[in-house]
Amino acid sequence: MKLRLDGRLPFLSVTLSFRRKELRLDNVLLDTGSAGSVFRADAVDELGIEPEKSDRLRRVLGVGGSEFVYSKRIEKLAAGDMQVEDFEIQIGAMDYGFPLDGIVGMDFLLATGAVIDLGTVELRGS
To answer: pTM here?
Structure first.
């Protein structure tokens, strides 16, 4: 799948599946510096994802600081022809000063065996 460069940062579209609903997000950052995949709570709201007592709360750290997120298992996370099922994502405020629906991190990239081709600016499965 072709990546979109915005300010020299790679963005992609993903589809999340949760409780038999699907949602496509088109403004998701591809970040090899992020261990996990995190999504903005407002962006996934229409899927009905909400914190529950059984969800794990965590504090995540990044270049922009830290924030609290909760973990949620979703049925599927897909990007192009790559997908993972029964996948744990993080949900948070993601107030980083620029519009962003989520971040796809190394957890997804490793699980799918993704290849980032900077010559063609594409992401594909191995």
So the answer is: 0.93
